[in-house]
Specification:
The protein is an alpha/beta fold and 330 residues long. 45% of the residues lie in helices and 18% in strands. It has twelve helices and 13 strands. It has a seven-stranded mixed β-sheet with strand order 2-1-4-3-5-6-7, with helices on both faces. Strands 8, 9, 10, 11, 12 and 13 form a six-stranded parallel β-sheet that branches. Helix 3 runs parallel beside helix 5, helix 6 crosses helix 12 and helix 7 runs parallel beside helix 12. The longest helix is centred in the C-terminal third of the chain and has 20 residues. The radius of gyration is 21 Å and the shape is globular. The two termini are 34 Å apart.
């Protein structure tokens, strides 16, 4: 009861989905009890040019289980991040033990299905798995060192940021936006996801007040709609990254003929070289306009997401893995 598997590095597609032969190879490996969810992740990866290594369907786990594959992927040089989609386990302790061994070395991003009684019954019918009470399973996954996700798209978003940026610590976020509305949405997403909007120091606030005109939002989130030029944009980025109260920066950009990711790429990349703090770009555009620019930025260390919630959840995952690495899980 499985769709099979694919290995992008080996150019092997042992599945019944021809499209998997088009997958870009990369450091993210996926183990899933659900073939359908494997495809949700893989199709998103195809659409957004995210590299996958191994994509493995376990089905009803008749002879191979998560605990069998985790040690293999932990030692696999082609795998940097492991994504798990779990419907249920007859003996979760074995899986949790293997996650605990893996997490200090490689990020494990996991999603547990069966969050309601109704879906838990469906999971048991689907793969013969005991779903168990979701809250207990989620807490056990976190305790073992997994980063827990709530939907398949978030699984890939978190995995992607971990391929681009080093694990980070903190929770205080600065937001810059060329449009006020998305900046406010980002603020809501930051707070909703348990992070904090950074309170800027007096020195930083004074510098930004001199850079930007008074008829815009100059606190956090910073509205860049009336920035005079790219130099003012770069100076604002520098001010925020220099502030000790800021742990990461999210920049929102709505595509416009006069403003594209390419135009702000130089300032962002220059400031990235001077700071170890994560910079995430949230860039929204109709399909077919900015994909190459996004690929260039991501290849140079700036992850890009199209929507505020996705950017914030990915950054939260990066911080969570930083805490996991710092605490250890042994």
């Amino acid at each position: 009861n499985t769709f099979g598997m694919a290995n992008g590095h080996a150019k092997l597609n042992a599945s019944f989905t021809p499209l998997f032969s088009r997958l870009k190879s990369g450091p993210i490996s996926v183990i899933s009890q659900s073939g359908g969810v494997s495809h949700l992740i893989a199709y998103q990866a195809l659409d957004e040019r995210v590299g996958l290594g191994k994509v493995i369907g376990l089905g009803n786990r008749c002879n191979v289980d998560f605990a069998d594959l985790l040690p293999y992927l932990t030692g696999d040089e082609e795998t940097g991040i492991i994504v798990l989609f779990v419907e249920g386990q007859d003996d979760p302790r074995v899986l949790l033990s293997e996650i605990r061994k893996t997490a200090p070395h490689k990020p494990v991003v996991a999603m547990k299905a069966g969050q309601s009684a109704e879906s838990a019954r469906a999971a048991r019918s689907h793969t013969g798995s005991l779903a168990g009470r979701y809250e207990i399973f989620e807490a056990a996954l976190r305790q073992a060192g997994a980063i827990v996700s709530q939907d398949p798209g978030e699984l890939l978003d978190i995995a992607k940021i971990l391929t681009i940026l080093k694990p980070a610590k903190g929770k205080n976020i600065a937001v810059m936006s060329f449009q006020a509305g998305p900046g406010i949405l980002l603020t809501d997403a930051v707070v909703r996801n348990g992070l904090s909007m950074a309170v800027l120091s007096k020195r930083t606030q004074g510098r930004i007040n001199r850079l930007l005109p008074p008829f815009t939002i100059r606190t956090n989130p910073v509205d860049m709609a009336f920035a005079r030029n790219e130099e003012a944009f770069e100076d604002t980025v520098r001010c925020l990254l220099d502030d000790r109260k800021v742990d990461a920066l999210i920049v929102f950009l709505l595509h416009h003929p006069f403003m594209t990711p390419k135009r702000i790429a130089g300032p962002l990349l220059r400031q990235k070289q001077k700071s170890e703090k994560p910079i995430v770009l949230c860039a929204n555009s109709p399909r077919g306009f900015i994909e190459d620019e996004v690929a260039e930025l991501e290849s140079r260390g700036i992850p890009v997401y199209p929507l505020p919630e996705r950017a914030v959840r990915a950054l939260k995952g990066l911080f969570e893995y930083g805490e996991i690495r710092e605490k250890g899980t042994g």
